[in-house]
Amino acid sequence: MTPPRGEPSIRPEFEEDIPGIRTLHRAAFPTDAEAVLVDRLRADGDLALSLVARLESDVVGHIAFSPLKAPVRALALAPLAVTESVRGQGIGAMLIRTGLQYAAEAGWQCVFVLGNPAYYASFGFSVEAAASFDCVFAGPHLMMCALGQDPVPSDGTLTYAPAFSAL
Ligand SMILES: CC(C)(COP(=O)(O)OP(=O)(O)OC[C@H]1O[C@@H](n2cnc3c(N)ncnc32)[C@H](O)[C@@H]1OP(=O)(O)O)[C@@H](O)C(=O)NCCC(=O)NCCS
Prior knowledge:
Layout: E1 9-12, H1 18-28, H2 33-43, E2 49-55, E3 58-67, E4 74-82, H3 91-105, E5 110-114, H4 117-120, H5 127-130, E6 133-134, E7 142-146, E8 156-157
Parallel strand pairs: 4-5, 6-8
Antiparallel strand pairs: 1-2, 2-3, 3-4, 5-7
Helix pairs in contact: 1-2
Bound molecules: coenzyme A (COA).
Coenzyme A (COA) is lined by residues 28-29, 79-82, 87-93, 115-116, 118-119.
């Protein structure tokens, strides 16, 4: 039986984490598109925030945020992945909550995500809040989470970082 491995630590990525991040996304998604996306965002200087969850020295979770061109200081959350063997233990939630906290502290006003509303609603993301924004990913899976007390516009155009055009 595998012994328990303790609590994961969440922190911004270091250079040493990059191979583990790549391996994680390749395993978590059907193609290597998300792994390539993260590499391209990093190479383009568009990885505004990149957090890893580590258990001992293994990268078992990763979340990325990149700037959007928008009428508000907005980030896009993508991608998010957790190693299959440690899913369902709250690591995804820890990455999202820590990411939103870092983003708020850095002065970002809101975060958009494309995902399953059933998963993201509990973190403050709302389909309704994103519904009037125009972007290539507009639809029933686009959500927005406001981060502070400042009013956030309810519509406008969102342009994702160039790395997303390859998806
Ligand atoms: C989505 C993901 C990051 C969640 O990681 P995690 O560490 O298991 O997340 P948590 O432990 O915080 O939450 C798990 C809960 O979310 C639920 N959940 C996970 N993915 C979900 C989804 N797509 N839609 C709805 N619920 C989902 C699980 O059923 C579980 O519910 P439970 O606690 O009631 O059993 C992980 O499943 C993953 O890497 N999936 C593959 C990559 C992916 O789809 N990424 C998201 C792209 S938007």
